[in-house]
Design goal:
Blueprint (H helix, E strand, L loop, with lengths): L28 E14 L2 E14 L3 E5 L6 H8 L7 E6 L2 E2 L5 H11 E4 L11 H11 L4 H14 L15 H13 L5 E5 L7 H17 L3 E5 L3 H4 L4 E6 L2 E7 L16
Parallel strand pairs: 3-8, 3-9, 6-7, 7-8
Antiparallel strand pairs: 1-2, 1-4, 4-5, 9-10
């Protein structure tokens, strides 16, 4: 499932040369959700996942969303990222009411503002790691030479500069997810949305991948929302929200999300 398509191509580009950390502000929420409702029609009648759900996410936060399977965590993430539309309510993301976007406008918005990481990496098996990372740039119309140079910079960011010529099948699970993370961020988005990004990894590798997410979150001034079942990893976020019975219950605020790691967790993934 590639993250971009030719329809995802706005008029301007940002490259790795422009990925310096953004100024963080805790005053204006980058995400504002008001009275969100999502209802599906099923054979047994209407199924409502959310009703009157509201949420604010401040610029620079790393928010973990937890909850039982089937609670609607992934659906909520898709709505926040303009991959799905709510039945009712408003979803303002990066000053845009994404609930009102046309399909084409939503595609351009996603490409410009949001990076996605999924539980499965969705890398294209016939292309190298370098080419996979460059795909979103090529979809935007960036020339191939610049796209590959920017992709190479991002592979260095995730400590895979020596693996750019390898195809996904030649990489470990942790390496594949790091390539997927580089691909998610190659367009320098403001938001990182991650749906169980460590769900397919063993405990040690999952912790190292999360270390990397934390580091990139901080160094590139991201706002991150991460759906996870791993409470140990969720506890490393700045805030935990539990989705239950269609409502979000706030958790505690934590210390800053990134502290340089030493010992076994700082190793290669």
């Amino acid at each position: 499932m590639p993250q971009t398509s030719p329809a995802d191509a706005p008029q301007t580009t940002r490259t790795a040369r422009e990925t310096k950390p953004r100024a963080k502000s805790g005053k204006t929420p980058i995400i504002q959700v008001r009275n969100l409702e999502k209802t599906y029609t099923t054979a047994r009648g209407a199924l409502t996942l959310f009703s009157k759900l509201s949420l604010d996410v401040q610029t620079g936060e790393m928010v973990a969303i937890v909850g039982q399977s089937g609670a609607g965590k992934s659906t909520l993430l898709h709505i926040l990222g303009a991959l799905d539309a709510p039945t009712a309510g408003t979803v303002t993301c990066a000053s845009v009411n994404v609930a009102l976007l046309s399909q084409q406008e939503a595609a351009a918005f996603r490409n410009r503002e949001i990076g996605y990481v999924w539980q499965f990496h969705y890398l294209l098996p016939e292309f190298t790691a370098l080419e996979n990372v460059a795909m979103p740039l090529l979809a935007r119309g960036v020339n191939k030479r610049e796209a590959l140079a920017t992709a190479a910079n991002w592979l260095r960011e995730v400590d895979l500069e020596d693996r750019g010529g390898h195809r996904p099948g030649e990489l470990s699970g942790g390496e594949q997810q790091r390539v997927a993370l580089a691909r998610a961020l190659v367009n320098n988005p403001r938001l990182l949305l991650a749906d169980e990004p460590t769900g397919d990894l063993d405990e040690a590798t999952a912790s190292r991948v999360f270390d990397l997410i934390e580091r990139l979150h901080t160094s590139h001034g991201l706002t991150s929302i991460i759906v996870t079942h791993n409470m140990d990893l969720a506890a490393r976020s700045t805030r935990i929200l539990r989705l239950e019975a269609g409502r979000l219950a706030s958790g505690r605020l934590a210390a800053p999300v990134y502290t340089p790691q030493t010992g076994p967790r700082a190793g290669k993934i």
